[in-house]
Structures are given as C-alpha cells and as structure tokens.
Amino acid sequence: MKIGYARVSTDRQDLTAQINELVSLGVEERNIYSDPGFTGTNRQRPGLAQALAAASHPGAEFVVTKLDRLARSIRDAKDIADQLVASGAVLQIGRSAYDPNDAMGKMMFSIMAIFAEFEADLIRQRTKEGMAVAKARGRLKGKKPKLPPNQEKRLVELHATGQHTITELAADFGVSRATVHRAVARSGSVGAAAR
Fold first, then answer.
1. Is 9 a catalytic residue?
2. Strand runs (DSSP E) across 121-165, as ranges?
3. pLDDT of 121-174, one tens digit each?
4. In angstroms, rounded to a whole number, what is the distance separating the alpha carbons of residues 173 and 168?
5. What is the pLDDT of residues 15-70, one digit of tens each?
6. What angle do CA 3, 105, 124 make, to 5 degrees?
C-alpha cells in the first residue's frame, strides 16, 4: 500500500503538482495526506502525523516527491526515515526507495537532507535581509495601530481623566487591554497606564 505526503509552506501555494506527481508514482489520491501552510521545519504537522500512522506497518510505502517536502532539517529527516524503517515501511523519495542498509543510499539520503536544511537556512537568511532592507527604506514599520489616531487620542484623553479603567476602555473601544496599555504608553502617560 502506498501512502503519499505533500506539503507547501504557505496557504497561497498550490499542492496540485505534488499530488499529480504522487498519483503518477502509484499513490491513490485517497491515500495522500497533505499539510498546506506548514514549513518543513515544523515537525508538528497534522497531515504528516496521519500519513506516518497510515504507513506504520510492514510493506507500506511512504512516498514524497522530494525530501524537502518531508523535512527541512537533517535530524527530522533521519528521525522520520528511522520511524518508517522501524515500522517495516519503505520511504520512497520520487522514484527512489531509501534503503538504510545500502551505504550509497544512506549517503545520498544524508546529502539530500543537508541540502534541504541548507535551503531552509538560505530562505530564512534572505527573509531577514529583505526585511532589513525594507525597514531601512521605511517600508517595514511593524504592525499598524489597532485604532486610528483620532480614536487613540480620545482613548488616551478618557484614560487621563481617571474615571475609566483599562478594562472599561478596552470594552468601549473594542480592543484588548494590551492595546489600551500600548496607546497610553505611546502618549507618554506611562505612569498612569496601570490604572
């Protein structure tokens, strides 16, 4: 029995190509589990857990199109492969089956895992660099305030009167207590924010 697994990192990405490839590798569509919107560095994925459970018996084949769809770290890739092997299942990556008893197969698996982790590290690095450039250009300014300036000003004025608690103001303006605290802190009335 073949169990397929597909993953994309964001909800905006499409699983269709992976699903089509899994079907071409002999996996029935009803036996394909997926995790849209989960990074490969997150081991706590519901689709992955279901797929591993479905493949945890001798003779099962766990199929992924590429190793980076399964894991983005060397340790996770090895742990998942070991878990499958221990249950008697076979890990198939594309058209190749992973054989832990074959020295060449182990080496190729390790190299693919290294590249998957390396690629994840590069993505994180590029994201950080892009955010730094955007911030330097004034395009990345953090979260926008929950309240427009005129409402925030009114909230601060009401707070300054001392007649309203943080909880009351939060309820009246439809925001959290933390938002009220931040608005008061931004206004310079930090000492009064505890009220």
1. yes
2. none
3. 888 888 888 888 888 887 776 667 778 889 989 999 999 999 999 999 999 898
4. 9
5. 999 999 999 999 999 999 999 988 888 888 999 999 999 999 999 999 999 998 99
6. 75
104: how many CB neighbours lie within 10 A of its CB?
8
- Amino acid sitting at position 194: A
- Taking each helix axis from N to C terminus, what angle separates 103-136 and 74-86, rounded to the nearest 10 degrees? 140
The count of other CB atoms within 10 Å of the CB of residue 167 is 10
| pTM across the whole model | 0.62
Residue 191 has pLDDT above 70, yes or no: no
What pLDDT score does 142 carry? Answer: 66
Q: 22 and 4 in contact (C-beta within 8 Å)? A: yes
Q: Which residues contact 147 (CB under 8 A, 6 or more apart)?
A: 155, 173, 175, 179, 183
Give the chain's end-to-end CA distance (angstroms, integer): 64
**CA-based torsion, 115, 116, 122, 126: positive or negative:** positive
What integer pLDDT is reported at residue 189 of this predicted model? Answer: 59
User: Among 69, 62, 65, which residue's Cα sits nearest to residue 40?
Assistant: 69
CATH of range 2-120; options 3.40.50.620, 1.20.58.480, 3.40.50.1390, 3.10.560.10: 3.40.50.1390
Of the listed 9, 73, 187, 189, which one is catalytic?
A: 9
